[in-house]
Each structure stands twice: as structure tokens, then as C-alpha cells.
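Continuing the batch. This is chain 6 of the set; chains 1 through 5 are on the previous pages. Same settings as before, nothing changed between runs. Recording input and output for traceability.
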Amino acid sequence: MKYPNLLFLLLVFGCFACQQDHQHITLKLDQRITNSYHQDGNIKLSPDETVIYDNGVWKVSTRAADVQYRQTRFRIGLIDSNQDGRYNEPNNDIVLLSIYGQPAIPIHLTESHVGVQRSKTIIQVDRHFFLLDDETGNGKTLNLVPWERVPPEAITASLRTRMNNLPVRTVAGVDESLDLSHGPVDKEQILLVWNYADGGEVLAQQLGQKTHERFHVTPLNMLDQPEQLRTFLQENASSLDHYLVSSLTCEVINCHARTPYGIRLDAYGNIVNIHLSFGELKTLLRQAES
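Output for chain 6:
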């Protein structure tokens, strides 16, 4: 884990004069947030618990709330990592961000929407910044203070709620950008992230054989080489436009290691769900066909 050094602290404290206003956004932490990576039904969890993976499997308590600030909406969650009843301990407890109303997200410390709290914890959602003002740490309420001019080094966790342009690599190996802000008329968008190692080619093959009236599906192949994808498309006729994931792609979609999974967008690029599991993806598309 990386923790702020003296320079980070100076940057944060130097921004105290940058506070946008003196109003706190007071949140009641009465929502759920769980780890979508966790699929083991043998571990019994209460509604306020989830599992994290950090040198082992740990059952932890969580608290969450939905936030609406101006035109931006999101869910914020807190994790009591050492189960001592407090949710604001620097270098220990965790803050995480999700799409508004979405309770299940990938939780791992390598993800940009997840971070270990600092002595001054600042989060970024789209173009907005917030300071966590949590004096009690009791997991019942949380104050957010709108902030501005925060240097990137001082940000603990960040989240996009919208995708406009997505850098990708074509089957021919050419880098280009997909415009997700103007999708097909009246169609939601599904980004399918897959590779051969996890058997995702079966799902990619099945999807390519069908026309989906409700969704526009874009397969994004991760980790494989252009030659592999070209061979796949030669052997499997597909009605879909296939692309390869590049490092720039992952800066936008925050690539997860456990593929295949889906990202659901509306027709204008607003994120509806940042992580559809393999099972959820198949169920959603099957329902759309019926």
C-alpha cells in the first residue's frame, strides 16, 4: 500500500483554502456495498458485511450511502478493515466508490475506485472533489466537503460515472477511439471484456451470432494478441465489431483481472453498472432476447 509522504500532506493542507463552500453534505450510511469478486456461498455474511482479499480472505463490515451533488450521482462506501467498530482510521480503513444505487462492485486495492484512507482523505468523482469529514467514525453518518484544485497525488479514490471516448486497438493493430456518448438510437451499450484464458471466447462467439434489439454489444479482448483475435474471427463469423484492449483503454474502464465481465452504459455513455459478472451478463442478454 502507498501512503502519503510529507509532500502529499503539504499539498492537501495547502488546499484547505480551496474549499468551495462551508456546507457539508451529511450522509446517512444506510446502504449496502459488497464485493462482486466474492462468489463463495459458504461464507455467511450479514447485510452489512462483505469479503475482501488481502493476503487471505477477510470478512469485514461495510457502510454506504448514495450521493447526489449537482449533476453527479454516486455511491460511497466505507470498510472497517480491522473490525474495531471504527470506519475512519488512516492507513487501515478503506473508502470505495460505486455507481449510484449499485451495491456490488469489484473491491481490490489495485482498483482506482478503492483506496486506503489517509489522515486527510479526498475522493474524485468525475470533475468533482470531496474531503471526507468523519470525526466520529462510527459508521452511521459521514460528512463530505466539496473541494477543488486538488493535485492527483492527494486523491485516495476516483470514479467515472460517464464514458465519452474509449481508446481501443483494432484487429489490424491500429489505435482509435470509440464515441460512447452517441450510441445507437434507443440502445443501451454493453462492453464485454474477455480473453481466451477464461473461456470468454464461447460467450463472444454466442453473442456474435445474435442480434440484440435492446443492447449494442462491443467485445473488448484483453491480454490476447491481434493474431489470436483475427484467427478467432476467421473461424467464427460475428455480427459484432471486435476490438483489443490497450493500456489507454484500461485508464478509462479500469480493467479488472477476472474476466469475462461487462460494463453497462446507457445510449449516452452514462455508466449503469461498472461490473456485470459472467452470470449476470448472460442473464441480462438472455432476458433482452425474450
